[in-house]
User: Which sequence fits this backbone?
């Protein structure tokens, strides 16, 4: 039983992180989300192995630096992609709101129409232009900069729509 307990503890940190991170789409919102998951498991197991060796009185000088390098590699892998190309023409207020209504408000509404949603995620609602403008910084971070919203791109937001949204945010908000 002690050996099984020792082996099970290698997955404790990665499993805890995975349980918590499912609430934050930026963790796995990439096309290579499985690479992030594998990296988290390996880094977490390496850190735990270092603690196990230390508890047995064995020193291991390379394990923590290797885990740190792995963690840095994950950070660079998950950096936001380069910016979206701005449209050649100015974007009207209505165009930006239309993108939000079609691609975002199906979930982020007081009455979501997207199957599987009974309430707006994190209580964020885009039912009126004023509510959208109030969330401009979050919209930019999630839909334009990191492109993790919509999750798994379930509403099929295009790069052109992201560019319109970025231009709209630049023109009409402080976000």
Assistant:
């Amino acid at each position: 039983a002690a050996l099984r307990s020792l082996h099970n503890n290698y997955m404790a940190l990665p499993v805890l992180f995975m349980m918590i991170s499912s609430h934050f789409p930026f963790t796995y919102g990439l096309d290579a989300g499985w690479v992030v998951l594998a990296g988290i498991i390996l880094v977490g197991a390496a850190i735990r192995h270092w603690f196990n060796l230390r508890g047995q009185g064995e020193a291991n000088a390379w394990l923590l630096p290797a885990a740190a390098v792995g963690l840095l590699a994950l950070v660079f892998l998950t950096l936001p992609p380069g910016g979206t190309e701005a449209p050649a023409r100015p974007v009207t207020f209505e165009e930006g709101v239309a993108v939000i209504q079609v691609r975002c408000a199906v979930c982020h509404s007081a009455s979501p129409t997207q199957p599987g949603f009974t309430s707006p995620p994190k209580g964020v609602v885009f039912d009126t232009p004023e509510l959208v403008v109030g969330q401009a910084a979050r919209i930019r971070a999630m839909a334009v900069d990191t492109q993790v919203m919509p999750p798994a791109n379930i509403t099929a937001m295009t790069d052109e729509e992201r560019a319109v949204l970025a231009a709209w945010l630049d023109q009409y908000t402080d976000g």
